[in-house]
Structure formats: structure tokens, C-alpha cells
UniProtKB/TrEMBL annotation:
Belongs to the short-chain dehydrogenases/reductases (SDR) family. This is Short-chain dehydrogenase. Gene3D superfamilies: NAD(P)-binding Rossmann-like Domain. SUPFAM superfamilies: NAD(P)-binding Rossmann-fold domains. GO terms for molecular function: oxidoreductase activity, acting on the CH-OH group of donors, NAD or NADP as acceptor. It comes from Capitella teleta (Polychaete worm). InterPro entries: NAD(P)-bd_dom_sf (IPR036291), SDR_enzymes (IPR052184), SDR_fam (IPR002347).
């Protein structure tokens, strides 16, 4: 049966490549992003994929848009990938951290993935694969933090990891497994040009990890 994959943040970077690779596997893909008409690469992919690829306007900070997803996406969802994320203001030192940008990053990186998941949970539960992915980062790890700084991004991803762990426990009864993944340091707008790997390599690895995700390793952070 054709898999249904839903991805957030598909205008560029890892989200766009997730769509490209799942489309090449013949999945039906719903790509969600704020301004689909502004990404030329996304529109090109849509032109070549046709009905297999649905573009869904979604700002993950807007509760009404998240609520509507359950009506826009009609089929059961095999894989829900919460990929959209922001870094927030970069280069802030101790003493420069402010409340508003921190709240904004928390809203996008931590709160929104939970809200999207809550809105679509029954559709995931009705599917064959029943998988939910949270795109996290090693920057959220305590053990990996050797450099300090990055208070905003690090804390938002650390909190996302906690969300993933609780989801894995709460959703096990529905047969849903949850993957909390680090995609590598990847050449995107966020990762920058000096990052270690390209999006194609990262997403090839991510797809393998998602394939191997099960109730046995649900909730684990996987690099
Ligand atoms: N690149 C890395 O090295 C790296 C490492 C670890 C983790 N990650 C994580 O991987 C994920 C993807 O990162 P990336 O490198 O592909 O970043 P990116 O190139 O900056 O892309 C981020 C995506 O998120 C979308 N987005 C941001 N705010 C949004 C909102 N309010 N509503 C909907 N979409 C929104 C952006 O859409 P717009 O075009 O509308 O802004 C864009 O499509 C993120 O969660 C990031 O934290 C990346």
C-alpha cells in the first residue's frame, strides 16, 4: 500500500529533501510550509510529482492552521515528520539573552511539534506504520555540550527531547513509535556552508533510521 508521509518546514533544507526522497520511494507526501508559492525548488518538485505531492500552507505557530490539518489531510498518516525549526538569534553571549526571542524559538521548536502531533494523532494511529519523528539536535544534549552558549536553541531542543520521551510512553498503547533524531551537521540555511554533510546524505540516513524505528527503540534520541 502507498505510504503517506507528512513533513513540516518543506520550503528548503532538510524538509525539502525529505519530500524529494519520500516521493522517489513512491510515497504520497504532504509538504507543509508557510509560503509554498515562494520556494522555487518546492514548486519545481510539485510540478514533477503531480498529485503524489500535496502542498499545505502551514505556519506552525498558528493554532487555527494546525487544527485545520486534520481536515486537509484525509488519509491515515504512516510517518509524521516534525521538521520545521529555527535557530533564533545567533551569537548571543551570556548576559545578552532576551525573553521574546527565546519564547519564539520555544514556540516553533518545542510547542508546535507537540500541537501538530496532537492534531494528527488519530490519523497516525489509523495507519500501517504509525511513526512520529521529532527533528531534534545534538545541541539539545547535556553530555555533548562542551562549548556553552546557544542558550535558546539548546534549551528548546532539550525540551523537545523530553516531549519525545513522554510521547513514546503515552502513545505506545496505540502502537505509535516516536523517533527523536539528530540529522547531522548539514549544509542548509541553518547549518551553513561549512557543515559536514549535504542534505541528500543526511536524509538517506534519516530514512534508514525511520525504517528501523519500532516500539522497541521508541523515544530514544538517535544521532
Ligand atoms: N542543518 C543542521 O545542521 C541541523 C542540525 C541539527 C538539527 N537540525 C534541525 O533540522 C530541522 C530542519 O533544519 P534545516 O537545517 O533544514 O533548516 P532551514 O534550512 O533553516 O529550514 C527550516 C525550515 O523550517 C521552516 N519554518 C521555520 N519556522 C516555521 C514556522 N513558524 N512554520 C512553518 N515552518 C517554519 C522554514 O520555513 P520558511 O521558509 O517559511 O522560513 C524552513 O522550511 C530543524 O528542526 C533544525 O533545528 C538541523
Amino acid at each position: 500500500m502507498q505510504k503517506v508521509v507528512v513533513v513540516t518546514g518543506v520550503s528548503r533544507g532538510l524538509g525539502l529533501e525529505l519530500c524529494r526522497q519520500y516521493l522517489s520511494e513512491e510515497a504520497k507526501v504532504y509538504g507543509c510550509c508557510r509560503f509554498p508559492e515562494q520556494s522555487q525548488q518546492l514548486l519545481e518538485l510539485k510540478r514533477s510529482a503531480g498529485y503524489q505531492f500535496e502542498l499545505v500552507p502551514l505556519d506552525i505557530t498558528q493554532p487555527g492552521m494546525i487544527h485545520n490539518l486534520q481536515y486537509v489531510i484525509e488519509e491515515p498518516i504512516d510517518i509524521l515528520i516534525n521538521n520545521a525549526g529555527i535557530y533564533g538569534p545567533s551569537g548571543l553571549s551570556y548576559g545578552e539573552v532576551a525573553v521574546d526571542p527565546w519564547m519564539e524559538v520555544f514556540r516553533v521548536n518545542t510547542v508546535a511539534p507537540m500541537m501538530v502531533t496532537q492534531a494528527l494523532i488519530e490519523k497516525v494511529a489509523d495507519s500501517q506504520d504509525k511513526k512520529i519523528i521529532l527533528m531534534s539536535s545534538k545541541m539539545g544534549s547535556m553530555g555533548d555540550n562542551q562549548k556553552g552558549g546557544s542558550y535558546i536553541y539548546r534549551s528548546a531542543k532539550a525540551a523537545l527531547n523530553a516531549v519525545g520521551k513522554s510521547l513514546s510512553i503515552d502513545l505506545a498503547g496505540k502502537g505509535i513509535s516516536v523517533g527523536v533524531l539528530h540529522p547531522g551537521w548539514v549544509q542548509t540555511d541553518m547549518g551553513g556552508a561549512n557543515a559536514l554533510i549535504d542534505t541528500e546524505t543526511s536524509i538517506r540516513g534519516i530514512r534508514k533510521v525511520i525504517e528501523q524505528l519500532s516500539l522497541k527503540n521508541s523515544g530514544q534520541f538517535i544521532n
